[in-house]
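Hi team,

Filling in the usual template for the complex we talked about on Friday. All components are listed, including any nucleic acid strands or ligand strings, so the model treats them as one assembly.

SUBMITTER: L.P.
PURPOSE: interface mapping
COMPONENTS: two
RESIDUES: 838
SEQUENCES:
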Amino acid sequence: MTASKTAAVTAGADTALRHKVLRRIKSRPTTRGAVILLGILLLLALLAPFIAPQNPHDLASLSVMDNRLEPGAQGMSGITYWLGTDAQGRDMLSAILYGLRTSLLVGLTSTAGALAIGILAGLVAAQFGGAIDAAIMRVVDFMLGFPSILIALVLLASIGRGVDKVIIAIILVQWAQYARLMRAAALVERRKEYIEAAVNFGLPTRHIMLTHLLPNSISAVLVVSTISIAGAITLEATLSFLGVGVPVTQPSLGLLIANGFEFLLSGEYWIAAFPGIALVLLIMSLNLVGERLRRSFNVRGQ
Amino acid sequence: MRRQLLFAFVASTCLLSAPAWAQSLKIALSSEPTAIDPHYHDLTPNNALAAHIFDGLTKQDEKQKVLPNLATSWENDGQNRWTFKLRQGVTFSNGQPFTADDVIFSFCRTLKNETAIAGSFADITGNFTAVEAPDPHTIVITTKAPDPLLPNFLSGLAILSSSILPHDKLTFDVAKNCGVTGAWPVVGDFNDGKLAIGTGPYKFKSYTKGTSVELERNEKYRGPAEPWASVTFVPVPNAGPRLAGLLAGDYDVIENPAARDVSRIKDDKRFGHVITPSTRVIYFQLDVEREPSPFVKAENGKNPLKDARVRKAMSLAIDRDAIIKRIMDGAAEPAYQFLPNGMFGALENPPKLAYDPAAAKKLLAEAGYPNGFQVTLSTTNDRYINDSQITQAVAQYLTQVGIRSEVDAMARAIYFPRRAKKEFSVALGGWGSTSGEASSFLKQWAATPDESKTIGGSNYGGYADPEFDKLIRTAITTLDDAKRSELLKQAGTKAIEGGAFIPLHFESTIWAYKANLNYVGRADQFTMAMQVKPAK
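RESULT (copied from the run log):
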């Protein structure tokens, strides 16, 4: 059996599995609900600049005279604030739509970045073994030994704040788990006969790594990453809540909750509650979808 | 004196035997003192705590009027010499008598204080050329230049007991270590209380950073005994939990509840509150010196803040009344100068700093910035009342006239060192006048620094106006009150016209407490157990 033939067979099995997964997702009402909800949230985030009544990042469009208005109240300029306003007179509905955008942007890009680094590191460690493997895995152990929030806090305290810096911090915190998972999957795959055959054929190492090892061991990592997007978003929200995340004039969901937190006791619940609900829905739908995928692919992640 | 002691004894025994009210008092603070060492940092929370354990030669009342304390009287010879008569029969909490030696010792310590932040208190004693004690109850201070405010400043300088260190004969000779033979204490040495020996109405019991400071009544105090056998200060930086703690009965007194929450306790018979105007001015300090400035971006590459018209436009763009109404919930007074009307050296009727966005835009265009420019406003988010919210509101107003503003809010522990390194272009500041005079802000912030750094220490924006400098330098060495007041008014007017500082408002301080207590608010914003008495 040639290597490419094996790959084709594996790919065929993959396609069958994919159909099965899709079927299962469709058949479960909770999962289906989660997928639909996630789709709606993604759409809202994408279309935010077109559907939001106000651009909350443009300070000139805010009015402090309209601050802390109740949901449904009308502002001085005639605009209706359906979800109320915060202490700066920001329309909460617009702020949540833009906040969703920031949260998803941070979650997706940082996960993609962490995936890229983690997959590469895990693949290299599995392929070359020995000292290189040991070196990479010690770094991974070191990173996983600390609570991720602690590393991110220290990083942001030293490099400053901003959306880009939060993304960098989350990438640095999360790549290690992917590297470990990728290495494990690739090690299993490397012992299979078709890889040995490819090696015996004298194919270049890079070719084996990229065309055989990578596509056949990546599924586990990809599945786990869907859950990790939720983790990245939560981490961003936590960092912003603690005041080291995004700038105060461009609030993410976490920062909106932090801003509203001080008004809870004054009875102005809407400043914290609505962004809180949005964040819960986002994380919940991501988790449900990710978890379903994980079970369907039977991945023992994390 | 003996009668006073007797009274104190009788009063305290009565209190001990009368369980009419709980003798312990718990106070929640919004800003934690950073040390027990009273000479560590000249900071409002630290000074307020120190005033419980230590006395100064003088003290200030609720309205910042100077009164006798460890000194009973003082006089000035019309020049550089001050003579202070010390109170007799005073003992420290460790039983040692208070004499002129303790005063010399404490003055020396401020000059030998290696851990002090930004030369705290050394700015007072650094101006002394000689301190002599002709007898154990008299102190004669000679200053380099005439210092009309010396009695005001000495109210904040805590007198330590000289018995805490081994020493020979104490003299004010810093080169010879003042006669002290041991090592001068550093900030950490005070935290376990062994060195925290004072003559104040309370004495130190325990201190856990971030958790609590506990004090107990000083039974050796010379005055009437305080009604509280023990006082606990708890830092609760968030306004919400602070108020929740009061409502739940955990705290007896809280400082700075959010002004918007006052309505919650106003109609509740279980609680009382007091709102006291303070001398603390909140303002923006502009970088008017550097070219380019780190956080300003203009199309022509220059620093627009150097142009007086731009600074005027910035002030015109801000609606102070709206900020006070919507952000401060009314608990502030608009500031058109750096000290409230009625205080010494403040203008009676300062011209109003109006809100006029159209005029602001016109001025910007005249200055060559019709399309505005970009700026980052730097601010603390945990020091002044609503500091970060105020800065964001100002950013809105500036953006509306074309000055596109961003806000960088950070904790004070990061902010203050960065500001001192001149890392900002437009920085929020707050300043309470410790002396109760207009000179406090003007000489510290607006004056060009002199060689010895006793003035202009916080002039981070590089404001330099020779005429202003002449006025303020003359004012602070003028002993004649009428003349000094006139000079300060002229200097204050110049500083406002210069526009390097944009004043926003004067904070009002709020205290809330259980209805069975009375609280007297202070203009200097000190939160003190001495202000709390059981309601009759």
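MY TAKE: The longest strand of chain A covers residues 73-74. The longest helix of chain A spans residues 205-242.

Thanks, L.
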